[in-house]
Amino acid sequence: MQTHNPPIQTGSKPNQSLFHSFKQSLSFPEKLSNLLLLLARAGLLLCLVASISLVLRSSFTSQTHRFILPSRTQTAVHDPVKNSTSPTNISHIVFGIGASVQTWKDRSLYTNLWWNRNQNRGFAWLDSKPGETGNPVPHKVSEWCFGSGYSCRSAAVRIARIVVESYKLGLENVRWFVMGDDDTVFFTENLVTVLAKYDHTQMYYIGGNSESVEQDQMHSYGMAFGGGGFAISYPLAAQLVKVMDGCLHRYSFFYGSDQRVWACIAELGVPLTTERGFHQVFFFFYF
Ligand SMILES: *[C@@H]1O[C@H](CO)[C@@H](O)[C@H](O)[C@H]1NC(C)=O
Ligand SMILES: *[C@@H]1O[C@H](CO)[C@@H](O)[C@H](O)[C@H]1NC(C)=O
Predict the structure, then answer these.
(1) Pocket test for ligand 2, best of 86, 121, 173, 195 (most atoms within 8 A of CB)
(2) In terms of pLDDT, which residue wins out, 264 or 136?
(3) Where does ligand 2 bind, in terms of residues with CB under 6 Å?
(4) Which of 17, 51, 75, 132 is in the most buried spot, having the most CB atoms within 10 Å?
């Protein structure tokens, strides 16, 4: 069968002239690209010289304040960490006691044991307004919160947020937020001595394991158990405030408030610093 193939033109005149003009048009951009290449090389050389001279300059000059990076504490929303070199004392601590109206009357007896109204700062955080308590420990009612999968109706969520609410009070010269339960007893002088060892301008999460091996295995050995109290440095609290509500949503299936706080802090990449002074006590009575 015959097909109509188009004739193949080889070396015909019109094609040659087309090729010629194409070559001519190529020669100009070739010069241009050479020029660009030259410019690029010159630029690179300039960069190299500049960076070498910068390196030499910064290594041989004593003036180091030229390229100061923002310090870590400046990431805080506002900066109350003033006079940060003075030794830490009780005035730098804000306590957050997880409590509830139903049990506060009886449990506050524990807090009364150690609370010194002349020097301690902080609050017992309750789920609703109490009647007249006659209690020296100041209290606040936790704010109402609600997010997908969590709400402050759950005591664990409400108590986990105490550090957030304490931070939001915007108190001056706070270095540490110390969380505890309504039956936690703090020896404040010892607490101050322990916290003073640490640089409060860094992110710290300080506490202790559970006294129960089963609890440690079930939760984590890297978690501070709430009953023994735990401390969060101001810069860590500042970061925690930003992530807490999203975190409560992600860990809404967790059991306790201390486990939620631990999970959020773990997300920030801050490990537990263990201090054996923060401990729970388990009384087991045989009858
Ligand atoms: C720092 O401490 C000194 C005395 O200890 C005090 O006079 C000064 O007001 C403090 N500064 C700030 C910013 O708190
Ligand atoms: C705690 O330290 C601050 C300085 O940061 C000082 O002004 C204050 O008087 C101290 N308070 C006590 C109770 O020692």
Answers:
(1) 86
(2) 264
(3) 83, 86, 89-91
(4) 75
Give yes or no for a contact between 165 and 241, defined as CB atoms under 8 angstroms apart: no
d(CA 165, CA 140): 10
- The verdict on 110 and 234 lying in the same domain is yes
Question: pTM here?
Answer: 0.69
Q: What is the pLDDT of residues 62-117, one digit of tens each?
A: 554 455 554 544 444 444 455 678 999 999 999 999 999 998 988 888 999 999 99
pLDDT in tens, 235-273: 999 999 999 999 999 998 998 888 899 999 999 999 999
Q: Identify the helix (H) or strand (E) that includes residue 20.
A: helix 13-60
Cα distances (Å, whole numbers) of residue 79 to 94, 118, 126: 16, 25, 28
Q: Which ligand is nearest to the CA of 89?
A: 2
Are both 50 and 174 inside the same structural domain? no
| Ligand 1 centroid – CA 67 distance (Å) | 28
Output the domain CATH number for residue 122: 3.90.550.50
Please check whether residue 210 lies inside any domain of the structure. Answer: yes
65 close to ligand 1 (CB < 6 Angstrom): no
Cβ of 85 closer than 6 Å to ligand 1, yes or no, is no
Percent of residues, the chain, with pLDDT higher than 90 = 44
- Concatenating the DSSP letter of every residue in 49-78 gives HHHHHHHHHHHH-S--GGGPPPPGGGGSSS
Ligand 1 nearest atom to the CA of residue 173, by list position: 14
Q: Closest Cα to atom 2, ligand 1: which residue?
A: 83
Number of domains in the chain: 2
Q: Is 66 near ligand 1, meaning CB less than 6 Å away?
A: no
Domain limits at 127? 90-274
For 250, residues 6+ apart whose C-beta sits below 8 A from its C-beta are 263
